[in-house]
Amino acid sequence: GGWIFTETDSVFAPTIHAQSAWADFDQDQDLDLLLVNISPLTDDGFIRRYRNDGNGVFVGEDILDSLTVEHGEAQWGDFDADGDFDILIAGHIKELDGSYNTVLRIYRNDNETYVPFEVIDCVPCEGWFDITAATWADYDTDGDMDVLVSGNYNSGSQIEGRAKIYDNNGGTFIDSGNELPAPRASGSRGGTFSWLDIDGEGDLDYFIAGQYFVPGGGGLVEAQMHIYRNDAAGQNVAPTSPAGLNAAVQSGGTVLLSWDPATDDHTPSAALTYDLDLFRDGTPVSLPRRLPEPGNVSAVTEWLLSGLPDGSYEWTLRAVDAAYNGSDISSGQFNIGVTGVNPVENLPREFAFDENYPNPFNP
Q: Looking at the domain covering 19-228, what would its CATH class be?
């Protein structure tokens, strides 16, 4: 509290081009870390999952065998809506056989065995020169996670930045035909892009900023920023508000919050994420959720909070669908410690005990 930050004892591998993503992959009510990129000590890329064991302790686990990512990124996401987190890989990677390829690939989570699934069969191909960034989002509000990819594209006359959307059609990714401008290098190298709902319609619009090649400029670049509004037909109805909120207070300032799964018109219930806020002696403000990201406690239906000081608490919860449209707020209350005694009215001012006759114990 008091805006005082204390470094934890957790030790993470040093990186010089790190990409990170957070999610509760093991559903134990805390956030775990996915860390990807190049190690400055060995000059080899890595994909490492840090499991959060509580109290600031993270345990590193190398995943995907010896496959490594170099100059790319990885993100959690549940593309098959089965309730666990798959991994999206984009960029230049070192394959298990030692070869190097530029890929846009999903590793499907099957009981923590990650099975490769190609989104684009080959890169460079279809004009792609390389891939620099990718992200999940349900751009067409049909309830599943699509993929937006950005990179450098060979238009025939020059190399230019470009972004494309691959539509998730029952687990098969199809080029949607939507081509959007992109910086010559996206992600952490020269530009950025993101999804957001700028007009509150429940669908995702597109923001892009960075260095663009000047048409006919012989390789010159200029800074640009654009917002593209999603004018697709149809409506994305927000999920139902979470119900059955319960707070099980334990010792030591610990409380286990739980709730019933919400439902949505398109996104399966298991793929909904949840956004949790906690207030102490305060009142939450109900504002439309337009953040282009999943809920902050992932896709679980319970969350453990520890180390809370004594007091009266209110907690609020939203369900978030695959298009990042949030439900109305549900709220609950709980107390930690003794916070007060309710007075009891209309009690007599005096009490008297009369002798009991006859006394059965003293005949």
A: mainly beta
